[in-house]
Design the sequence.
């Protein structure tokens, strides 16, 4: 079959990103041709400021070099400006006459700098700040001339001014508004910014209107060059270089000339398609729902959607972006997002330390963050931004909101508070031994933009994830505004699908799907049999949604759950038999001792969960070990109930007010063999001294004189999370009913690999209380569903000692 | 279990010795999207079967930290190592980028439903 022809006009970040995304899905669908007006391949435009400032070179900021186009069989026309689009003839014609036909056309022409219509705008030495050419011209001018004037005190203007200053020029910034970056900052933050930039040697003239750029008299053969800038009030300052950074305009000229509907940008629908169905537009040239975005972050979302439709997959909609701003001036930490203007119906939380140079202001409306400005300490910028985008209810964390995420325990083990000020050799990821410098280097050299990319390339935050916040900060401070925090709400399950966990669960439930291949077929998985990440999740969703109907798929389980033992670093396994409530006896201990002797088990260790771990068991010995132990499986290897830790309680303890040991045994007998989205740990203490550490368990019960207090969603692992009080009940039966309901709700709704704390953080404790406490019928129904699910569930060890899955434990020989 | 040095070229057959085909087991003894370990004179070999009933054989050691690949989850033509989730191509033994490393591979064939391995 003859391939279709895809032509792209514009060789910038948005367009090339679209091609990359499309090649990932459908590498062979199109013959691709790209026109670029600049002589360079695709580079990272947002890093021009560090280049101007002398902190990076052009080479550092290349994203795709010419070889990349070659490798992907893309015909690249560099230095060729497209003159017109012939829609009836489906052709693109460049100024030099080069003509390419298209079946699909992608316009990614970006934006043009706005030029003030004032006398002298065309003089030599008057520049804009947009591309490598402008940057080089400024660097060159900085080597020869002294006085630079930057017109425009916005993001781009300030970055240009900072760069020129670092290049040794005398820089004055002219701004027509009363304060700098008025679209991103409130007055307080802006004054702080101005002060710190002044300390770097920049000068500012605010509320000044530029009237004219005055040039030297032109003489024969020598073009008139800028000499000074004159203002509306008659004053004048010397200038050898003028950089206009007063804004950008979507570059929709070609589309307009071709008769495509434009309105401050090329108008596109949610699939990035223009009014000509063969033609798509992405990036700064596109106008989506009335907005033409001038920042990089939304481009990636657009690119993904557009690529999907170009690849004829036909799923995905771009629904607009909330953008955030970060100034890339070394030594200045500034972050702004959303609406910060305030109003009667918004509340604000402000922290202002003028001596320390820290200012934080968050705007909250209906318990949700709607905007924020951070100056001096922007560590939590991406965290606030994520909550803003996801419209997360912050009522519960409102009183610590200002103190940031590290206050809630999510930014690295050592509690580093500022990624920007961390030295390069400081360790960020303790699991994989990754230092900050390694991460920054990978981001710059490999052109990484997302947390996933950084994880893949450096392994940082890819194991336990506790340094995720810190890695995100490093990413944000390295790539600036191009970083979009991962959208947690709409995140697809994995690379095999665009569907979220929630959507998948819903489809499984509504369409009564019973097997993994059925789900993949029904939901149009991109891979034939998924991956190591989605298959275990799907297996769990099927089993938890349709107990006794869906059949377990052992090949979609991680080895531990397939072998019913925990794999160790040398390939041997560990065996932990269950001791209900941590109680054992002489005969069990004797059997354990005999097994250790018989199978020459090298290490015996008491676990943190009140039981005994036999380490270094050969896989082939597992069924024999289990048979000789004749004890129940401890499920220490599974996403399932682990232990119910107990204290001694009222039977022995002189302080105990409730029989916590018996309560623990009863709970463990109720919940054992129960699989869940992740491991589940419980504890019961017999008095408020809480010796069983109920405060950091998924379900923690504390006996008090008048009954039992139930706490939920605690965690003692990666991030210590204190469990939250759910309710107080009188009887042991009620403890079982309420905790069952809570756990079943978690089993039905959480994403696979969510601990209870993650799930509750997302849905809110109020929701849990409503379902478990207020809705009595609902609680009983949840309790009943869990009982039904666990009915007849077998002990996997017993089954395997009787020969089930025999092949799993037997090696072949040749 | 001795760990294989990372990235070392794996010589499967000593020089001068000719390779031979040996019978392993019926295909049905290897679970679909799964693997079996084969104990051999050359060390443990992981024999995989994918969804299309193709059979692959790799040295049962991940190039990363020597994890037993036979215990991993199989998908497409890839296995995820059970220790640190490195993904190893079944056909070539190469780690999927950006990870780097390679484990030795063995030729396989299926005849009348019986799996053979070239050693």
Sequence:
């Amino acid at each position: 079959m003859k391939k279709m022809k895809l032509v792209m006009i514009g060789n910038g970040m948005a367009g090339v990103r679209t091609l990359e995304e499309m090649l990932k899905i459908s590498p062979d669908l199109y013959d691709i041709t790209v026109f670029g007006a600049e002589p360079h391949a695709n580079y990272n435009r947002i890093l021009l400021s560090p280049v101007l400032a002398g902190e990076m070179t052009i080479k550092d900021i290349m994203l795709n070099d010419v070889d990349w186009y070659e490798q992907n069989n893309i015909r690249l026309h560099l230095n060729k400006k497209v003159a017109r689009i012939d829609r009836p003839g489906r052709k693109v014609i460049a100024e030099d006459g080069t003509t390419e036909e298209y079946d699909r056309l992608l316009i990614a022409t970006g934006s043009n700098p706005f030029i003030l219509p004032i006398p002298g705008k065309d003089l030599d030495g008057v520049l804009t700040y947009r591309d490598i050419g402008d940057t080089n011209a400024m660097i060159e001018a900085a080597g020869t001339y002294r006085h630079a004037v930057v017109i425009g005190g916005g993001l781009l203007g300030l970055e240009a001014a900072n760069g020129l200053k670092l290049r040794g020029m005398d820089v004055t910034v002219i701004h027509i508004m009363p304060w700098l970056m008025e679209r991103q900052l409130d007055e307080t933050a802006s004054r702080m910014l101005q002060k710190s930039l002044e300390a770097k040697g920049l000068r500012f003239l605010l509320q000044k209107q530029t009237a004219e750029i005055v040039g030297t008299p032109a003489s024969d053969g020598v073009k008139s060059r800028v000499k000074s800038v004159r203002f509306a009030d008659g004053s004048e300052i010397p200038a050898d270089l003028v950089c206009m950074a007063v804004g950008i305009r979507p570059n929709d000229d070609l589309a307009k000339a071709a008769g495509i509907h434009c309105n401050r940008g090329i108008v596109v629908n949610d699939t990035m398609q223009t009014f000509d169905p063969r033609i798509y537009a992405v990036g700064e040239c596109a106008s989506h729902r009335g907005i033409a975005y001038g920042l990089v972050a939304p481009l990636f979302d657009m690119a993904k959607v557009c690529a999907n439709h170009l690849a004829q997959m036909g799923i995905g909609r771009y629904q607009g972006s909330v953008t955030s701003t970060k100034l890339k001036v070394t030594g200045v930490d500034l972050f702004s997002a959303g609406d910060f203007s305030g109003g009667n119906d918004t509340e604000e939380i402000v922290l202002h330390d003028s001596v320390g140079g820290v200012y934080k202001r968050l705007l909250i409306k209906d318990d949700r963050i709607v905007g924020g400005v951070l100056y001096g300490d922007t560590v939590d910028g991406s965290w606030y931004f994520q909550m803003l985008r996801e419209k997360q209810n912050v009522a519960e964390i409102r009183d610590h909101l200002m103190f940031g995420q590290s206050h809630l325990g999510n930014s690295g083990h050592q509690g580093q508070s500022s990624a920007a000020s961390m030295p390069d050799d400081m360790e960020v990821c303790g699991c994989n031994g990754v230092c900050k410098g390694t991460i920054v280097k990978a981001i710059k050299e490999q052109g990484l933009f997302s947390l996933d990319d950084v994880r893949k390339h450096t392994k940082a935050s890819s194991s336990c994830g506790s340094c995720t916040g810190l890695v995100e900060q490093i990413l944000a401070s390295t790539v600036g505004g191009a970083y979009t925090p991962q959208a947690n709400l709409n995140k697809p399950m994995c690379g095999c699908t665009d569907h979220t966990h929630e959507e998948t669960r819903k489809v499984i439930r509504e369409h009564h799907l019973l097997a993994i291949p059925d789900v993949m077929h029904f939901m149009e998985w991109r891979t034939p049999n998924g991956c190591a990440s989605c298959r275990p999740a799907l297996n769990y969703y099927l089993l938890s949604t349709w107990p006794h109907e869906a059949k377990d798929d052992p090949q979609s389980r991680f080895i531990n759950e397939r072998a019913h033992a925990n794999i160790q670093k040398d390939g041997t396994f560990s065996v932990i038999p269950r001791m209900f409530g941590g109680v054992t006896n002489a005969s069990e201990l004797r059997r354990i001792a005999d097994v250790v002797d018989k199978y020459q088990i090298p290490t015996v260790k008491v676990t943190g969960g009140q039981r005994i771990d036999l380490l270094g068991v050969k896989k082939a010995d597992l069924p024999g070990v289990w048979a000789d132990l004749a004890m129940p499986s401890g499920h220490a290897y599974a996403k399932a109930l682990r232990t119910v830790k107990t204290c001694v309680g009222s039977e022995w303890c002189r302080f105990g007010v409730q029989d916590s040991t018996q309560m623990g045994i009863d709970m463990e007998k109720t919940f054992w063999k129960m699989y869940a989205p992740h491991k589940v740990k419980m504890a019961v203490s017999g008095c408020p001294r809480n010796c069983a550490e109920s405060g950091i368990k998924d379900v923690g019960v504390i006996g008090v004189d008048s009954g039992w207090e139930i706490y939920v969603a605690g965690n003692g692992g990666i991030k210590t999370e204190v469990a939250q009080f759910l309710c107080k009940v009188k009887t042991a039966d009620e403890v079982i009913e309420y905790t069952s309901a809570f756990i079943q709700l978690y089993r039905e709704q959480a994403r696979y690999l969510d601990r209870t704390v993650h799930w509750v953080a997302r849905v809110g404790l109020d929701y849990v209380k409503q379902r478990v406490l207020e809705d009595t019928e609902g609680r009983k129904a949840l309790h009943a569903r869990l009982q039904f699910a666990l009915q007849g569930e077998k002990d996997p060890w017993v089954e395997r000692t009787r020969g089930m899955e025999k092949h799993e434990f037997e090696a072949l020989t040749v | 279990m001795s760990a294989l040095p990372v990235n070392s070229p794996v010589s499967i057959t000593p020089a001068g010795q000719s390779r031979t085909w040996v019978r392993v087991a019926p295909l049905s003894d290897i679970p679909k999207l799964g693997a079996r370990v084969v104990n051999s004179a050359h060390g443990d070999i992981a024999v995989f079967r994918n969804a299309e009933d193709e059979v692959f054989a790799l040295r049962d050691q991940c190039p990363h930290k020597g994890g037993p690949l036979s215990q991993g989850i199989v998908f497409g033509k890839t296995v995820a190592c059970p220790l640190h989730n490195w993904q190893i191509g079944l056909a070539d033994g190469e780690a999927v980028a950006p990870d780097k490393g390679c484990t030795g591979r063995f030729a396989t064939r299926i005849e009348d439903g019986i799996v053979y391995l070239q050693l």
In short: Confidence is low (pLDDT under 50) at residues 1-16 of chain B. The radius of gyration of chain B is 13 Å.
